Amino acid sequence: MSVYLYRWGKFAFRRKWLVLPIWLVLLIGLGVLSSAISQPMEDDFTMPNLPSERATEILDKHFPGASDAFDFDAVTGTYVIAAPEGQKLTDPNNEAAINALVDKLNGLDIVDHEKQIESPITTAGKLETSDGATCLTADRTAEQFRADCSGAPLNVLNTEKPDTVATLGAKFTIAKFQDITPEDREKAYDIADDARNAGLTVELSGSIAQENAAPGGSAELMGMGVALIVMIIAFGALVAPFIPLITAVVGLGAATMLIMAGTSIISIPTFTTFLASMIGIALSIDYALFIVSRYKHELTVADTPEEAAGAALGTAGSAVVFAGLTVIIALSGLSIVGVKFLTFMGIGGAIAAAFAVLVALTLMPALLGAFGKALFKPKLPFIAKHDPEDDSVVSNGQRVAKWIGKAPAVALTFGIVVLGLLALPAVNLNLGLPGDESAPTDTTVRQAYELRTDGFGEGSNGVLQIAVDLADVAPDRRDAALDAVRQQLVSYSDMDYVIGPNKSEDGAGATFDGVPKSGPNNQDTKDLVKEVRGAESALTDEYGLEYGVTGTTAIFADVDDVLLGSIVPYIAIVAGAAFLLLILVFRSILVPLIGALGFLLSMAATFGATVLIFQEGKFGLIADPHPIVSFLPIMLIGLVFGLAMDYQVFLVTRMREEYVHGKPAKEAMISGYHHGARVVTSAAIIMISVFSAFMLESDPTAKTMGFALAVGVLLDAFIVRMLIIPALLALLGDAAWWMPKWLDRIVPNIDVEGEKLNLRRHGDVAKEPEPVKIS
Question: Which Pfam families match (predicted)?
Fold first, then answer.
């Protein structure tokens, strides 16, 4: 491989004015294609074969159209209305303001008028108790009142502040969530302005109030700005840092346009481009940084700049190929989870990674030729004084490596203890999909959540819908069966109250609404879902009924279970594939193995740090702690695993190169560390900067993911790859590079170290390097 890349590097450097226009035509072509055929992105968070689908089947059977309420594409909205402090909504002036709002909604052009909207006060007044009174006039201390009036859209059950909060639902004529325009949101929100001017608090929840824009934009620019500063320091010059930035823009632009063109064929989630941006920018800069750094060194030993470009691509380029392959494997592996949006996010990231490799190998040498002698000018004093590739200079990297070599056991113990302590909070990991409670506190969606919680209890934000199928129950036993179901539901300590049964027209179906005491993402609520489902078998045996549990909370709990259950097989498949790939790179069993085990340590520590900051709210860095997004762990594993193997390849291939060229194992570790420390440090800082910039997004998912990725890279690069792995290599000595003879014979020699390339450059193409003997 090194020889082929060497030849291409020289060709692209020499024929730069052919290669550069080809890339320009490719970008223009992708841009025209994307503009012509791309369609709006669509978020689809549905998953097949969830337990909640059973309830959907029963609803479709006995309540046609009822399951539409759980369609993520449906455009709905719920107005949450609160009375001024010390007043009730039933006061004449407040009731008049609500009636006026209802009249306006019934006349709004984007509202579905198939069924007229009714005032929540009117609805509550129509509901009768068992003794014939209404829910507004009945004795609220009566034992049966709670059961009779629990379904009222007015908080009549609230003992401290009754009749102070109400909900008002509306269905909109907009076909899909993706079709909602800013004007639609403005109309839906502003229609309540008169009610607000009358003294009421009116907030809006539901899909009509949610933004559908993918995060990104300013974060990428900030990440690139930090990357520029880091590369100026790394190269000691002002011009060279712009090469990686150019490749990053080209690679990300090409990947994004290809993804957008794909929307004409299939629906692609909005977060696909978000992930592609994070990966594309970071990898493109990292790979370019790696190759340009090697090119800078080769200029000092090669006869011509063209020869230096070929040598840089033949050596560093080989490492880039395999580093990129590990990322592509890790991201493509997300498809095994079986979740559509994760599959597309993984594929989008893999496309971005592939373009990062492609531009590094094809566009990069042409840019080196185009900039020519001006590339490393003007030099910056002090910064450019020492070349880390110069063996005569004692660099900071070499000092650290020598310390690790002298006390590898101490370095190893220190790294493991630090990661172990950080990992401890991970045992409290609580997963959940982002809901209204995770929205920024200044949004109407979040304020509606808080109003509803204040008036109806937190569980009212995540009602469980229990759909009962009575088709196999004798008609004369159906009422008894439903009574048994209700008694079972109200018996749970975590259930606040139960609404229903609501019987179907055919009499063979019914629904209950179970309102938990805790919120949608609370573990107690998820446990309640399991308890309710667990009671079905006994009721089936006694009455012959069947039921299912659905609703946003139940669906989210099902998604959590599926994603958690996918982590182990995902790690096994991806790590196994990467392990085999790294055996090819390092021609060793132990080096890939300790690399993978080190990753598990850094992942555990990353989870711990994320739980500590975002879930538990420690150190006051996050004002609004919330559960960790349920798909974050598996995505984090995929992303950071690929990046971790990047650093493993970047740093350890140079150590192996020194070892293959005859240095003792410990000296090879020190020399390779000396040569690779600056570029790996720079690459890691750039990655951390790009990911950290996403913490500035308002979207809680983007914020959490940016933090977790930044911490993951920080811990893996600086503690695992630059401390634990070198310490283990020093302790293992020659044994680190051992491989069974039978395996050595069947594993192809891909020559990442460039040994064949060195022989070719010195004119001795017939001679093959002697294999390294390990005693």
Answer: MMPL
Task: Kindly report the number of other CB atoms within 10 A of residue 4's CB atom.
Answer: 13
DSSP string, 409-470: HHHHHHHHHHHHHHHGGGGG--EE---GGGS-TTSHHHHHHHHHHHHH-GGGGS-EEEEEE-
Q: Which residue has the tokens 């609805």?
A: 123
| Stretch 459-477: mean pLDDT | 92
Residue 439: CA count within 13 A, CB half-sphere: 20
Decide if 98 contacts 195 (C-beta within 8 A).
Answer: yes
pLDDT at 771 exceeding the cut of 60: no
Q: Tell me, letter by letter, the H, E, C secondary structure of 61-94.
A: HHCCCHHHHHCCCCCEEEEEEECCCCCCCCCHHH
pLDDT of 229: 85
Domains of the chain from N-terminus onward: 1-43+218-378 (1.20.1640.10), 47-67+463-550 (3.30.70.1430), 75-211 (3.30.70), 394-435+563-754 (1.20.1640.10)
**pTM given for the model:** 0.79
Structure tokens at 203: 């907030």
C-beta atoms surrounding 347 within 10 Å: 21
Q: Write out pLDDT tens, residues 366-398.
A: 999 998 888 887 777 666 555 555 555 666 778
Q: Which two tokens stand for residue 658?
A: 């020194």
Nearest alpha carbon to residue 30 among 367, 222, 301, 256 = 256
> 710-746, pLDDT tens digit by residue?
999 999 999 999 999 999 999 999 999 888 888 888 8
Per-residue confidence (pLDDT) for residue 201, from 0 to 100: 96
Place of tokens 């001679």: 767
Report the candidate in 548, 552, 526 with the shortest Cα–Cα distance to residue 539.
Answer: 548
| Range from 196-200, 318-322, 558-562, 748-752 that averages highest in pLDDT | 196-200
